[in-house]
């Protein structure tokens, strides 16, 4: 069995919500462009909105279940909370409409994370309507995952048993980062690395219940490779580094999952060796061009994995993350 925990969609019927807002320019029956105001953000095709197309690709890749999350550019965290709540409701309802009657898709909702009460209310509404979990961005402006409001939301997710998929977004821009997709190639790993450290050093894992099921996208960014550096700093410069954490960073790696969107067996080995074979799940970033196809190819071809480890990573761990075991 193969479960892909990291895929995205954009509903084909996405409305125009006004100047400066993300919208969908329909170019043909099989081509569209995500727009942000008048700026082209990303071309997309039917894989992002058409279940039969997705199912055909899943059949080609041997994928049995697909977690389907929002595309982060639609989060709206920079907007007034009421507007972000409206966007979340529209996106979430259109997602359920798009995927209706397709049990191999597990929809994750989005929430107005800048307002914890509204975020909790939207999550509850979505879980009751048929969503299987929630995707959140890794920060809201300068507020990272140790922000009190975001911690309140994570505590609520633990209470209601909702799995949380954390996706980097809104990476810094500048002359050094706007070339060669450097925001995606360096900014995304750094953003995720920072947010994992934030949850550790900000004391979040010491506060939220261990029932919280959390997964970081893109192999937890650069965090696994630099965990030794974080531990070294925690011990040698604890006066600055320890923050609100009770233990060194390596003592928290059992508290979260990370997906396998790392593209290389050597990187996968670092990920598995660092987090443990029980904390790694297959992800692809389907259907976007920086994703992995065929899905799970690196895991299936990793000669260092035993059959038991491979089974955990391709299905067992994901089912635990989703609360299905």
Automatic annotation (TrEMBL):
It is an enzyme of class 4 (lyase). The keyword Lyase applies. SUPFAM superfamilies: Metallo-dependent hydrolases. Pathway: Secondary metabolite metabolism; quinolate metabolism. Residues 3-324 form the Amidohydrolase-related domain. The keyword Metal-binding applies. It holds the Pfam family Amidohydro_2. Belongs to the metallo-dependent hydrolases superfamily. ACMSD family. Monomer. PANTHER family: 2-AMINO-3-CARBOXYLMUCONATE-6-SEMIALDEHYDE DECARBOXYLASE, 2-AMINO-3-CARBOXYMUCONATE-6-SEMIALDEHYDE DECARBOXYLASE. This is 2-amino-3-carboxymuconate-6-semialdehyde decarboxylase.
């Amino acid at each position: 069995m193969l479960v892909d925990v990291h895929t995205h969609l954009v509903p084909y019927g996405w409305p125009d919500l006004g100047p400066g807002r993300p919208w969908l320019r329909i170019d043909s029956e099989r081509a569209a462009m995500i727009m942000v105001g008048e700026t082209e953000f990303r071309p997309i095709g039917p894989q992002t909105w058409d279940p039969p197309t997705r199912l055909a690709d899943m059949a080609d890749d041997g994928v049995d279940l697909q977690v389907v999350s929002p595309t982060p550019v639609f989060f709206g965290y920079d907007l007034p909370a009421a507007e972000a709540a409206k966007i979340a409701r529209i996106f979430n309802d259109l997602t359920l409409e798009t995927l209706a009657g397709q049990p191999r898709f597990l929809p994750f909702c989005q929430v107005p994370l800048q307002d914890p009460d509204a975020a909790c209310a939207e999550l509850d509404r979505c879980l009751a309507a048929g969503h299987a979990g929630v995707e959140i961005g890794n920060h809201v402006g300068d507020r990272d995952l140790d922000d009190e409001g975001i911690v309140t939301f994570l505590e609520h997710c633990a209470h209601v048993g909702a799995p949380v998929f954390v996706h980097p977004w809104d990476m810094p821009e500048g002359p050094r980062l706007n070339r060669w997709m450097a925001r995606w190639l360096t900014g995304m790993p750094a953003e995720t690395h920072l947010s994992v450290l934030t949850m550790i050093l900000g004391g979040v894992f010491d506060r939220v219940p261990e029932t919280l099921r959390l997964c970081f996208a893109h192999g937890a960014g650069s965090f696994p490779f630099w965990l030794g550096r974080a531990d070294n700093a925690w011990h040698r410069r604890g006066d600055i580094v320890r923050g609100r954490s009770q233990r060194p960073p390596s003592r928290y790696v059992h508290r979260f999952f990370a997906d396998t969107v790392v593209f290389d067996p050597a990187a996968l080995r670092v990920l598995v060796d660092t987090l443990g074979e029980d904390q790694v799940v297959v992800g692809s970033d389907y259907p976007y061009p920086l994703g992995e196809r065929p899905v799970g190819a690196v895991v299936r071809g990793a000669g260092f994995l035993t059959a038991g480890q491979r089974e955990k990573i391709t299905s067992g761990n994901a089912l635990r993350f989703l609360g299905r075991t």
